[in-house]
Specification:
Blueprint lengths: L3 E8 L2 E6 L21 E4 L10 E4 L3 E5 L5 E8 L18 H11 L3 H8 L14 E7 L6 E8 L4 E8 L2 E10 L4 E19 L6 E4 L4 E6 L3 E2 L10 E2 L7 E11 L2 E5 L2 E18 L12 H16 L3 H16 L3 E3 L8 H9 L6 H17 L25 E2 L3 H5 L1 H5 L3 H26 L9 E2 L15 H4 L4 H14 L8 H17 L1 E2 L5 E2 L10 E2 L5 E2 L6 H21 L3 H13 L45 H15 L6 H13 L3 H14 L17 H14 E2 L5 E3 L10 E8 L3 E8 L2 E9 L3 E7 L23 E5 L5 E6 L5
Parallel strand pairs: 27-31
Antiparallel strand pairs: 1-2, 1-30, 3-8, 4-5, 5-6, 6-7, 7-11, 8-9, 9-10, 10-11, 11-18, 12-13, 13-16, 14-15, 16-18, 17-18, 19-28, 20-21, 22-23, 24-25, 26-27, 28-29, 29-30, 31-33, 32-33
Helix pairs in contact: 1-2, 6-18, 9-11, 9-12, 11-12, 11-13, 12-13, 13-14, 16-17, 16-18
């Protein structure tokens, strides 16, 4: 007796619960979820013209962008552990007295501009950059005069395909990157004989090619330093012979009906009916705190161990194993908003830009975000960075790092809600490493116990404030990365259905809280404040007219501290440990400075009601409590102030591109404004997407958090559970009058499916991991319960194994899911 399934149905007398008891998953009946969505495919009638047209493949560690040219296929390659630089620690000068002087400037003298200048002292070296691995080019004799071309990516199978005709001959190729087999696999076949050259290349200096009778390879080193792309320093890329992370990538080729000859970094195929090729890669990075591998032969052997068994196995068997493993995750959750369009994907986007309506693109965007998370974040890999794992530039935008003041977190917002908890694990691993590395940062920069991490993080686990004592504090001097990352530790547990948090995860949260306990100081009114404090990447205008960023108790700091302290208290109670610390945290919660409402009724972003030099700023940090936090009480004065802040920020131009628009969609969803959420979602589709559906809010700039943020926002429109209630269709837009979603995950480990019509839920399925009380809200304004007006009593009928208590107002039901013999 370890799970339950329950099916709710609407009928003229009210909302009815049907259950088969505690026998695992509910046996769905009737017409619930019988129609599979068709929005699982991106496809085009022409090859990619540029990198942002290519289609992404990945298995968490290895990534490829497939261009699809008939005459010369190109696959741009990445591996998650290839970065510039190497293991290092921050170089810190004597900082004694700096922190105390900063606090005096802010708290006692309100000399904010001087505080900004002094905060530069609390900066060290810039982080390093994620690097491209190289490329594989497949050159053939195929004529350029091809026709009936089709290029596609099937999200449900994670397989990219190209198909075209030259005269009477048909050419087909398909590829995938297998998680179980750890390799890129490409299969090419044609009705004509295949002659082709396969060639490996890389953008790095001093690359060497090699081959033997089993594989051809390319090896080299990453730069020892890359200056962030937003900073001007000469030289901006530095290579050093004998230094830098080693890499090797290699191919093996199996022709059918022809011959293959391997040469240095190349393979020559002649007269084949079909060709299967396999690519593996390895780097010298062995994990945080471990010695680097600097022997190229070891890396070649690592590639050989991957490739050797693949060459001996039939292609169809490899493909079947890949698809089966992929669908274990992908098939858990899907969204159907109606029939798919027959147009190619790029034409659908263009039609939408020209005023067409295409709600299916919302479903495709939802599925694509889940696909990208599966492709860029798997157990054992590095977490998804600013571009997931796909990057072609040595100096990528913002170093392609983990930016922990929103972007790294947004990458993982859909992990739990869309039922991909395994994909969250790489972030948990990163946090574990940062907690170790961050103890030195907490001590050296602030004299505090516990651990701290700042705005920019790279593979070497940089936790210190970067900037080299010359970057503006408004983005560098932000010390709250630990508390925000710990929210993910808590959410990973909250969605799991487990009764108790893991002890090791509790320690991560506990040590982050200890840092804050040491860091907090008393303000003029005796309340505890963070100081120095910034609101991520924003600045204010002080009373003397100067523009500054450093103050005390920014509103986001307070929300993050409250979030961490509350969850630590709850975890310690579950585990029955740390009673003394629990009392300290409880007291601190009462003594924390409270977020303030300004004179215009908006939630203040800082501890004073400062003027905003940029009222339409892209960050929405002070609204954390609304989303992704869980402290917004519906209808409360703070929620109203938060709403007014959001309205003002958006009216002034904020929330207008990529990830910040995605955040705005999630905020509207939490405010139960489905129409406004959809309005911004449609703008995202029209304005923020490249033709390959990558979030590209600026020309030639890809930033994957926009993809993940919109996927999670769509999930929030359909189901919310942050207030302890399963809230069904809380922000359903009028433009989605009917549809269905299955496999959404709620806190407590519950799996939820909903079919709706005429704007209201018609059937709901629940999977409950263990007996428990469940509060479920069905808002009657959406047409539930036979169309009763909001506030009217709604009846419900209990079936064997489940007792139902009905609240008489607002469609709130309490289910006591109790086990019974079956």
């Amino acid at each position: 007796m370890n799970s339950s399934g329950a099916l709710w149905r609407c009928h003229p007398g009210g909302l009815r619960l049907v259950t088969d008891g505690f026998r695992g998953r509910v046996a769905l009946s009737g017409d619930l979820f019988v129609t599979e969505t068709k929005e699982f495919r991106l496809w085009y009638r022409q090859p990619a013209d540029e990198w942002l047209d290519a289609l992404p493949l990945g298995n968490g560690a290895l990534g490829a962008m497939v261009w699809g040219s008939p005459a010369q296929e190109r696959l741009d390659l990445n591996i998650d552990t290839l970065w510039s630089g190497g293991p290092r620690v921050a170089q810190v000068e004597d900082l004694s007295g700096v922190l105390q002087e900063l606090r005096d400037l802010v708290i006692n003298r309100r000399s904010y501009a001087q505080a900004d200048a002094l905060a530069l002292r609390l900066q060290s070296s810039f982080n390093e950059s994620y690097q491209p691995l190289g490329w594989l080019v497949i050159g053939s004799e195929a004529s350029e005069h091809w026709e009936n071309y089709e290029r596609s990516l099937d999200l449900s199978e994670a397989v990219a395909k190209v198909r075209y005709e030259v005269g009477s001959d048909l050419y087909e190729r398909e590829g995938f990157i297998s998680f179980p087999d750890r390799a890129l696999v490409v299969n090419l076949k044609a009705t004509a004989k295949l002659d082709m050259v396969l060639e490996l290349g890389a953008p790095h200096q001093e690359v060497q090619a090699g081959a033997d009778d089993q594989m051809a390879w390319l090896e080299g080193r990453a730069p020892i330093h890359v200056v962030p792309d937003y900073w001007d320093t000469d030289p901006d890329v530095v290579y050093q012979p004998g230094s830098g992370t080693r890499f090797v990538f290699a191919i093996s080729v199996r022709p059918s009906g022809g011959t293959v000859r391997l040469a240095e970094g190349r393979a020559y195929v002649e007269g084949a009916d079909e060709v299967s090729l396999f690519l593996a890669a390895a780097t010298g990075y062995a994990g945080y705190g471990r010695d680097m591998v600097d022997d190229a032969e070891q890396l070649r052997q690592a590639c050989r161990r991957v490739l050797s068994p693949l060459v001996a196995e039939p292609y169809q068997a490899l493909k079947a194993r890949h698809i089966a493993e992929h669908r274990v995750l992908f098939d858990r959750c899907s969204l159907d908003l109606g029939p798919a369009s027959a147009l190619p994907t790029d034409q659908r986007i263009e039609a939408l830009r020209n005023g067409a309506t295409d709600e299916g693109l919302c479903a495709l965007l939802f599925h694509y975000g889940r696909y990208l998370l599966m492709a860029s974040s798997r157990p054992g890999s590095q977490p998804a960075n600013l571009q997931g794992i796909w990057n072609q530039k040595i100096r990528p935008p913002w170093s392609c790092n983990w930016t922990t003041n929103i972007n790294a977190q947004m990458n993982y917002w859909p992990a739990e809600t869309t039922n991909l908890a395994e994909c969250h694990e790489p972030l948990m691993d990163l946090i574990t490493d940062l907690a170790q590395a961050g103890t030195r940062t907490a001590k050296d920069f602030y004299g505090c116990r516990g651990w701290a991490t700042h705005h920019n993080v790279d593979i070497w686990r940089s936790t210190w404030p970067t900037g080299e004592q010359r970057a503006h504090p408004y983005w560098v001097n932000w010390q709250m990365g630990g508390p925000w990352l710990c929210q993910h530790v808590w959410e990973h547990f909250a969605f799991s259905g487990r009764e108790q948090l893991d002890q090791c995860h509790y320690q991560l949260m506990r040590e982050a809280a200890i840092f804050l306990l040491d860091y907090l100081v008393k303000g003029p009114d005796g309340k505890l404040v963070t100081c120095p404090s910034t609101s991520p990447e924003n600045s204010f205008r002080a009373a003397d007219g100067t523009e500054a960023a450093v103050s005390a108790a920014s509103t986001m700091d307070i929300w993050l501290a409250r979030d961490l302290f509350r969850h630590c208290i709850m975890a310690s109670e579950m585990l029955g440990v740390d009673e003394d610390m629990r009392q300290v945290l409880t007291t601190c919660l009462k003594d924390l400075y409270e977020p303030q409402v300004g004179t215009e009724g908006r939630l203040q972003e800082w501890w004073e009601d400062f003027e905003e030099p940029e009222p339409g700023h892209r960050h929405l940090s002070h609204l954390f409590f609304l989303y992704p936090g869980d402290e917004a009480v519906p209808g409360s004065p703070l929620e109203l102030a938060g709403r007014r802040s959001l309205e003002h920020r958006l009216a002034c131009g904020g929330g207008s591109k990529g990830w910040n628009r995605a955040w705005a969609i999630g905020l509207w969803a939490r405010l139960r404004e489905g129409g406004l959420a959809h309005e911004h979602l449609e703008k995202f589709l029209r304005e923020d997407l490249a033709d390959n559906f990558f979030a590209a809010p600026h020309p030639e700039v890809f930033q994957i958090d926009g993809n993940f943020g919109t996927t999670s926002a769509i999930a929030e429109m359909l189901l919310q559970s942050h207030l302890g209630t399963l809230d069904l269709l809380p922000a359903l837009p009028p433009s989605w009058p009917e549809g269905q979603v299955k496999g959404l995950r709620a806190r407590g480990g519950m799996i939820v499916g909903i079919r709706w019509a005429d704007g209201g839920a018609r059937e709901v399925s629940l999977e409950v991991p263990r007996p428990r009380e469940i509060k479920l809200r069905c808002t009657t304004r959406l047409g539930l319960s036979g169309g009763h007006p909001e506030g009217t009593s709604v009846s419900a009928t209990g079936e064997p194994g489940v007792s139902v208590l009905v609240a008489p107002a607002h469609g709130l039901y309490t289910l006591a899911a109790e086990g019974s013999p079956t």
